[in-house]
Specification:
Elements: E1 14-19, E2 24-29, H1 32-38, H2 41-52, E3 66-70, E4 84-89, E5 96-101, H3 105-110, E6 116-120, E7 127-131, E8 136-140, H4 149-160, E9 165-168, H5 171-174, E10 182-184, E11 188-190, H6 195-201, E12 204-209, H7 220-234, H8 239-243, H9 246-258, E13 261-263, H10 267-277, H11 282-289, H12 301-304, H13 307-310, H14 315-319, E14 322-326, E15 336-342, E16 348-352, H15 356-361, H16 371-384, H17 388-403, H18 409-412, H19 422-434, H20 438-442, H21 446-453, H22 478-486, H23 498-504, E17 519-521, H24 522-525, H25 532-548, H26 563-571, H27 577-597, H28 602-605, H29 610-613, H30 630-641, H31 652-657, H32 661-667
Parallel strand pairs: 1-6, 7-12
Antiparallel strand pairs: 1-2, 3-4, 3-6, 4-5, 7-8, 9-10, 9-12, 10-11, 13-17, 14-15, 15-16
Length: 668
């Protein structure tokens, strides 16, 4: 069955299901009521997985479903709408998993006349899906198996034309590393919670999308006007870009560290940082201010990774290798860049500029100031299709185990491991991506490695419910701690926190998100009992952003992104801010319910490593003496969500009011 013409709502009302066991493809229609309840992207995928993934399914088995979903605003003319959501059951946690990425894959997939594609089963041999607006077919991928993500993408584009966009796995996914992600656009990863391993287990090497069918919208002129006005607002404040550099950002971090107050974060500063340097701009400021984890989460930035070290891998040093800037589809910010790094007189390494998470995970977390090695690690992991956050954390775990004699020279093949030893870091990363030697033990992350090693190694395995935490310290921003613990996909840093809520300015659009004070005392900052409603509203908003297929940076760079207005202009609906926020709330309940059905209650089962919560507390720095109360964080968020703290079961009346009768019946 072929996709039919859109009715002009921002969605095609069609998804395709691929049975990899049989090779059969089926297009299914979804009605408008479905989209009014869940939109596209994350919401569409959450409903499909809730309805169709069998309880107890093996995450790496045939009954798990892997989905690629585009957003309601994808390819409509709205700005920042270039992201797709990857979904499935996580082999890391055994529960809900989603990840997303930008670039150009999302519009190419949507132009095939569908809103999402879902895969079930396991192919007898390696395959890839080719789809455009006329056909969809599974093709043999035997010649691609074993190739890295860059090689795979180049070969498939040569085979199917320049219009084709590719989502694929590298060797990490093929070898079912639980740190594997899915790559698009030459090494951009949807990286978290092991969904690349799910793709590898299904023997699905790639999805090639080459559509050219534009989706219809209800009011294209309105979208155009909204996008034009928003673009103009983003062009203001260009003077900040001229003066921003690592020394100034170091001073900002220093002020943050020394001040007895927490000050609301200015989105104008964040916008200038992103436009000039991308997320690499955060490296020096975060190390100095206390946001960056240091030395496997038990060091202190200004003492153990001072400016003399962070500057060596900071935005200006990285920027010296910049070849050209780029932006994702429909993005006016253009925070990405390609760097060219000379290896020797003949060889030049060309890759995406390392993000802050990579620079920190292979910098401050390991006490490594060798930018050349970070570049090489970045390229190695992008090609393997492996999460840089998890891999850096796993290297940190291995170094500390070596320091305590749990891992020895015999385990590493005679290669010693130590803090700041850049060559040892690079060699170990190579072993992990290849699953060779000790790399095989480490390739599934710190929790699995500690379980296999034993001998007290658990003390150094820093994780949240099995997933290595992002490079943002909950002791610096306790909102991160609440998200790491309570989210159905744990260890997620771009959902909500005090800092994110500051720069999103949600209080201007959503009345229940109270306006935080301009200055907040340290005591108030760490008082989490009254922040549950605040964080829950931020969570609902992030769910909405992912349903729309938008980049969260677009909500954080000032000017109040007209998300609701775009959605109404696209769909022809007349829903208010609160009604759209309820869609986000509905999606969050579905993700949580998915976990509950698998026997997982986040507050009970996603334990945070003691170092994340300050047990014991650090002896100096901005988080000196800080210990977060896990129970208070969970109780505040669960109370706001209407979830029972002991069982996780949601309030029945709230579920019914949200139209989630099937969820209510499942647990009540």
């Amino acid at each position: 069955m072929k996709p039919t013409r859109s009715e002009g709502k921002g969605f095609f009302s069609k998804v395709v299901f691929v049975n990899l066991d049989s090779g059969k493809l089926v297009f299914e229609e979804l009605d408008e009521a479905f989209y009014r309840s869940y939109l596209g992207g994350l919401g569409l995928g959450a409903k499909i997985l809730w309805d169709r993934v069998t309880t107890g399914a093996d995450a790496l088995g045939p009954d798990n479903i892997l989905g690629f979903a585009t957003g309601t605003l994808t390819d409509t003319g709205a700005l920042f709408a270039g992201r797709y959501t990857l979904l499935g059951k996580s082999p890391v946690t055994g529960g809900w998993a989603d990840a997303n990425s930008g670039g150009y894959f999302a519009p190419a997939l949507k132009r095939c006349g569908i809103d999402a594609v879902f895969f079930r089963g396991i192919s007898p041999g390696p395959v890839y899906l080719y789809i455009d607006e006329k056909e969809a077919t599974l093709l043999d991928a035997s010649d691609l198996w074993g190739k890295d993500t860059i090689e795979t993408e180049v070969l498939l584009k040569e085979r199917h034309g320049k219009r084709a966009e590719v989502a694929c796995i590298g060797q990490a996914g093929e070898k079912r590393s639980l740190m594997a992600g899915v790559s698009t656009d030459g090494g951009r990863l949807a990286a978290r919670l092991g969904l690349g391993a799910v793709m590898g287990a299904k023997r699905l090497k790639a999805v090639v999308a080459a559509g050219r069918k534009k989706v219809g919208v209800a009011d294209p002129e309105r979208i155009k006007a909204l996008s034009g006005a928003f673009r103009k607002r983003l062009e203001k404040g260009g003077y900040l870009e001229k003066i921003i550099g690592d020394r100034l950002l170091h001073k900002v971090g220093q002020m943050t560290r020394k001040s007895p107050f927490y000050m609301r974060q200015p989105p104008q500063l964040f916008r200038a940082m992103m436009k000039k340097y991308g997320t690499s701009s955060m490296t020096v400021m975060s190390a100095e201010g206390g946001d960056s984890p240091v030395k496997n989460w038990h060091g202190v930035g200004y003492r153990d990774f001072p400016f003399s070290m962070s500057e060596a891998i900071g935005a200006e040093r990285v920027g010296a290798f910049e070849d050209k800037k780029y932006g994702c589809f429909s993005c006016p910010l253009r925070c990405g860049a390609i760097v060219k790094v000379p290896l020797d007189e003949k060889n030049i390494l060309e890759m995406h500029r390392p993000e802050y998470e990579t620079l920190c995970a292979f910098g401050a977390l390991l006490l490594n100031r060798d930018l050349g090695v970070i570049f090489r690690v970045n390229d190695l992991l992008n090609r393997a299709g492996m999460d840089t956050i998890s891999c850096g954390a796993t290297v940190a775990f291995a170094i500390e185990c070596f320091e305590h004699g749990i891992i020895t020279d015999k385990d590493t093949g005679g290669v010693p491991l130590s803090w700041g030893d850049s060559e040892g870091i690079l060699n170990l990363t190579r072993l992990i991506t290849a699953r060779e030697g000790i790399g095989d033990l480490l390739a599934d992350g710190v929790k699995k490695a500690a379980e296999r090693l034993g001998r007290g190694s658990e003390a150094f395995a820093v994780h949240c419910g099995g997933i290595e935490p992002p490079m943002h310290d909950p002791k610096f921003d306790p909102g991160f701690g609440m998200a790491y613990l309570c989210e159905p996909a744990p260890g997620r840093h771009m959902v909500y926190s005090i800092m994110l809520m500051d720069i999103e300015r949600l209080d201007r659009k959503f009345p229940q998100t109270r306006k935080p004070p301009i200055l907040m005392s340290g005591r108030e900052k760490y008082n989490l009992t009254d922040k549950g409603d605040f964080m829950a509203a931020g969570c609902f908003f992030r769910m909405l952003v992912d349903c729309a297929g938008c980049c969260v940076f677009g909500t954080q760079v000032g000017g109040e992104m007209p998300l609701v207005e775009w959605l109404n202009a696209s769909t022809g609906w007349d829903l208010g801010n609160e009604e759209y926020l309820r869609i986000g709330e509905r999606v969050e309940h579905l993700r949580h319910a998915f976990n509950l059905r698998e026997g997982i209650n986040s507050a009970r089962d996603f334990a945070l490593h003691p170092r994340l919560t300050g047990h014991p507390p650090l002896d100096c720095g901005p988080a000196a003496g800080v210990s977060l109360d896990r129970g208070s964080m969970a109780e505040a968020f669960y109370r706001a969500m209407g979830w029972d703290i002991e069982t996780g079961v949601p309030d029945k009346e709230r579920l019914l009011a949200l139209g989630l009768k099937d969820v209510a019946e499942a647990f009540l």
